[in-house]
Amino acid sequence: MKLSFMKLLSLILIIILTCNKTAFGCATMFVDQFSWSLHPNLPVNDFVKGNLGVIQPSFARIYLVIAYRYLINKPLNNNEINQTVKLINDRLGHVSFYCFDITKMDYYKDWINERNLVLKPEKNTNLKAYTNLNDFNYITICNIQADALNKATNTLKNLIKKYGIKTPCVIDWVKNQDIVFKNDGNSQNTKIPTPLTKSNDSYLMNERNYQIACANFYATNYETAYTDFNKLANTKDYRDKALAKYLAIRTLIRQGTVKTKDQFNIEFLENAQAQILKIKDKPEYSAYINALNNLNNFILDRLDPKSRLRQLDQELINNITYDSLEEYISVYDIVTGYDPNNFDTNEKNIQPLIPNLGSMSEWIQVYQSKNSDACNYAMQKFNKTSTTQWLINLNQHTATSDKNFSTIIGQFNMLNQSNKAYLTLAYKVTKYFIDSKQYDKAINLLDKLLEIKDLDLSSKNMYLAQRIQLAKSLDQFVKFGISTEVGSWGNFSDEVPDNYIYIDPAVKTIKSKPLHNFIPLAQGFINSYFSLDMLKKLSSTKIYTLPSRLNLVKVIFLRSALLNKMSYVNDAATILAQIDVSYKNLYINFLKNNSPEEKKFLMAYIMLINSNFLPYLTTNSNNFNSYEWWGKYDLTNLHMPDYNTDDGYYSYPNKVDYPTYIKPLFLSKEDLVQASNEIKSLNSAKPASVYLPEIVVSFAKTHKNYPLVPQALHLSVRCTHLGQRCSDGSKLSKEAFQLLHKNYPNNLWAKKTPYYY
Lesser CB count within 10 Å: N end or C end of the chain? Predict the structure, then answer.
């Protein structure tokens, strides 16, 4: 069974609530994404139409199905494109969870409108269309679906036409239908309509019995519902005997998949399958032939999934439909043991390769596998077939240091840019040139790739991450190090395109547009290998956006302060006075002041009142929220993330955005040594919760009448609370509190500071 949306949401909320400052990335939940790893560039229309870009093995299988079709020169036709795009958009939009808010659906509105013609509207007519199963923690199923509401609407119309809109029997039917729809599988809420015993009208009797059967179904009383539906199916004068039989089979399948401690109950499913095969070709069931076939496929998916996967494999190669593609993804997961709830296991993906899955499934399995056999398997298949799809698979599994990589180079050189495998092969070939120090070849190829007009943004940013390593000047570094993000990771969803809203201080208006920023690898280089001198040179470049430049200059301001280089602090403040307009007067006041002691206080005050100062650039577009400051963890992580450990930056970038790398060519040994020495000093610097209150408390002791001191003392206490907690910070908090209340007992800031702990 699939993990319900509500369980997933609950799990995310638990993670957020249990995260602390040290693992800040968990709480941030908004990380700029420059290249997708789970899917191609969004919206997916271009990819589905054949603009594949760099095909990554981490893509969801639905995209690899599409890629395979183009790689074997069987492009999707217009109908297939429409069906596929609809399914992808539905999956990305969680349409499968429609039953959590059924009130937005037209069929629900149609039912309510028809119902309200007979009875007064209820105060709360919302249906709980999903069921939480009592026997299983967090398992949720869609219970009341579109067909049920449409059936109720049409039945009511027939009753009104036959008996009249305000007749007792119609009113009674509507009241009982309300009872039916209020059953949600919770035994405490179960309420079944009372049978009609005194009516001579067989039509009304049958409709009541149908209501009773449905109520038992929604209440998950499947055994009773199965009996009820079968009785109706065998009732001579019941007008919907075929429907009743179909629902009896559906109920049997529910018994075999929901009311069982195992994944499914073979006995129930085999019984249901036998009944389907017995009736599906009979003329009286022709209206339900598609529904019965779907039920039969559902059973096959569980009883013989490998056989069913082979069938679907061939179906999709010939023709893609919404239903067949959706079913294929589900059955593939069953056969390969993919667990949508266990990301760690899926990430490793080292289980043995499974034979005889069908040509497409075989290709997908090998492409995504991390099993040591995958490379040999791909080599054997390519040597046997010489096909593009197996060349791309061999490329995936062959290290650039492997002698067999020369085969890929030779094949690549024979391709032109129109080949669907070209861009994926080019990414690895470029890596080969970089790894073998053939930098000019890498530069020439990358420059050609970046000039491709219809190159998707996600692939472009992957190439930029390669090209920036080969920058031979700071100008080139900026040229190739800045791009537009494709979206964000977070906001309770993975990899979702997002238009960031930020305030442009220059014009004081809110703009909504994709954010232009340093790509993650460029940020890593800046944070890890740039000295203050190099950062100053970088800040003078004005081709990047205001938010990006603002964050960079704040990094310079803070690093300079921690390294006690006040001339660099002055230079940064001069720029900030121009671009950080909300605090313009503070920077100007700081720059005008010549007293070293007062200047240092104002520097600390600026960072207390405007807490968005970090010692590094971050992939989190919003930096910190109000009143959060850098901690020791931030200072000791001024290095490139290591994906073999869990101590990377708090705003963990996508692995695709942070590939293996060489240090930028334009940085000299002297540049790297200078940066390394500065970072060592920064690693031993104090967190904000100690560094800033120390300066303020010291200044407050000798400058009692300085107008900003009371507020600075208040902010110091706040900083020790909301910044990193430590014993030194606690002592300073108490000291700042005592100074504030002793020297300024009636001051507004003293009243706003009732505690120091």
Answer: C
pLDDT score for 114: 95
Q: Cα(298)–Cα(435) distance, rounded to whole angstroms? A: 49
Region 188-213: mean pLDDT is 91
Look at residue 189 in the predicted model and tell me its pLDDT.
76
Residue 3: per-residue pLDDT: 36
Those residues with Cβ within 8 angstroms of residue 513's Cβ, 6 or more apart along the chain or in another chain = 499, 500
Q: Is 36 left (phi over 0), alpha (psi -120 to 50) or beta?
A: beta
User: Would the CA dihedral through 370, 375, 380, 382 be positive or negative?
Assistant: positive
Q: Which amino acid is it at 217?
A: F
Reported as a pLDDT band with limits 50, 70 and 90, residue 675 is very high
pLDDT of residue 12: 30
The answer, yes or no, to whether the previous bond of 193 is cis (omega within 30 of 0) is no
Residue 574, token pair as written in the block: 């001069």
Task: Give the H or E element holding residue 30.
Answer: strand 30-33
Q: How many residues does the chain have?
A: 757
- At residue 409, the 3 state secondary structure works out as helix
Which of these, 318, 322, 235, 243, lies nearest to 288 by C-alpha position?
Answer: 243
**Vertex 727, ends 726 and 733: CA angle to 5°?**
90
In which band, very low, low, confident or very high, does the pLDDT at 668 lie, cut at 50, 70 and 90? very high
Asked if residue 490 has pLDDT above 70, the reply is no
Q: Are 193 and 225 in contact (CB under 8 A)?
A: no
Counts of helices then strands in the chain (DSSP H, E): 36, 9
Q: Is 18's pLDDT higher than 80?
A: no
Tell me if residue 42 falls in helix, strand or coil: coil
Collect all residues with Cβ–Cβ distance below 8 Å to 609 and sequence separation of at least 6: 583, 586, 711, 715
Give me the residue label for tokens 């990414």.
427
Residues 327, 297 contacting (CB under 8 angstroms): yes
**Where would I find the H helices in 499-544?**
520-529, 532-539
SS3 state at 490: strand
CA angle at residue 617 from 614 to 619, to 5 degrees?
115
pLDDT-derived band at 134 (thresholds 50, 70, 90) equals low
pLDDT at residue number 241: 95
How many angstroms separate the CA atoms of 79 and 468, rounded? 41
Distance CA 537, CA 515 (A): 23
Q: In 10 A of CB 288, how many CB atoms? A: 20
Q: Are 335 and 357 in contact (CB under 8 A)?
A: yes
**Amino acid code (one letter) for 468:** I
| Alpha-carbon span 711 to 395, nearest angstrom | 61
Lowest mean pLDDT among 98-112, 173-187, 352-366, 433-447: 98-112
Angle, alpha carbons 500-60-343 (nearest 5°)? 85
Between 616 and 501, the more confident residue is 616
Write the CB contacts of 716 (distance below 8 Å, at least 6 apart in sequence): 608, 692, 693, 696, 697, 732, 733, 736
| Angstrom distance (rounded) from CA 720 to CA 135 | 47
CA angle 154, 157, 158 (to 5 degrees): 90
Calpha distance 146→105 (Å, rounded)? 9
- Whole-angstrom CA distances from 491 to 28, 91, 519, 656 are 9, 17, 20, 20
Q: How far apart are CA 105 and CA 101, in angstroms?
A: 8
Residues 715, 709: Cα–Cα separation, whole Å: 10
Angle between helices 305-318 and 359-368 (to 10 degrees): 100
